[in-house]
């Protein structure tokens, strides 16, 4: 369910598109964040308020850096960040995070397809062995079985996509 908020933007329809992509819970999260930044409760975030919040996050931008941050977000040039400007900034970041997640998901699915030679949605020990050999890894059957046991969380003798993704996600962190 998209949030019913209209975001005036100089670049046309992008803001309305972004606002429709926000869920009610995301919008509520943004409201809470805005309230944390808006220390004096006047409905806008000043450079000083932004600096205070940055310090609580362990970042200590100087005055010039704060002004640069403000200029990037302050669309109407009034020297403050109002709620709509804040929503736009946060929704851009949320959308970017979602796009990055989608890109990673596509990459992971392509990697899975390399292993899943027969396309049945499962990697068996023979498929794993063939891929490892194509990568120049000559592994014994025992080593292949050990790799399968490690990846096969549900013990069915196969590695499904969820198990593969979990294995790769764990390796990246």
TrEMBL record:
It comes from the Eukaryota. Keywords: Calcium, Metal-binding, Repeat. One of its GO terms (cellular component) is myosin II complex. GO terms for molecular function: calcium ion binding. Pfam families: EF-hand_7 (PF13499). Gene3D superfamilies: EF-hand (1.10.238.10). InterPro entries: CALM/Myosin/TropC-like (IPR050230), EF-hand-dom_pair (IPR011992), EF_Hand_1_Ca_BS (IPR018247), EF_hand_dom (IPR002048). Residues 25-60, 61-96, 103-138, 139-173 form the EF-hand domain. This is Calmodulin.
């Amino acid at each position: 369910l998209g949030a019913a908020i209209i975001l005036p933007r100089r670049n046309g329809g992008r803001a309305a598109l972004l606002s429709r992509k926000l869920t009610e819970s995301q919008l509520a999260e943004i409201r809470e964040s805005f309230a944390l930044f808006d220390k004096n409760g006047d409905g806008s975030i000043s450079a000083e308020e932004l600096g205070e919040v940055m310090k609580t996050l362990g970042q200590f931008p100087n005055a010039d850096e704060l002004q640069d941050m403000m200029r990037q977000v302050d669309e109407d040039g009034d020297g403050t960040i109002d709620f709509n400007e804040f929503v736009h900034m946060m929704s851009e970041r949320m959308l970017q995070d979602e796009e990055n997640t989608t890109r990673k998901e596509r990459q992971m699915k392509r990697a899975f397809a390399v292993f899943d030679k027969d396309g049945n949605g499962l990697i068996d020990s023979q498929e794993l062995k063939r891929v490892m050999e194509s990568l120049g890894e000559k592994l014994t059957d025992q080593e292949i079985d050990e790799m399968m046991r490690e990846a096969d969380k549900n013990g069915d003798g196969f590695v499904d996509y969820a198990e593969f993704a979990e294995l790769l996600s764990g390796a990246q962190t």
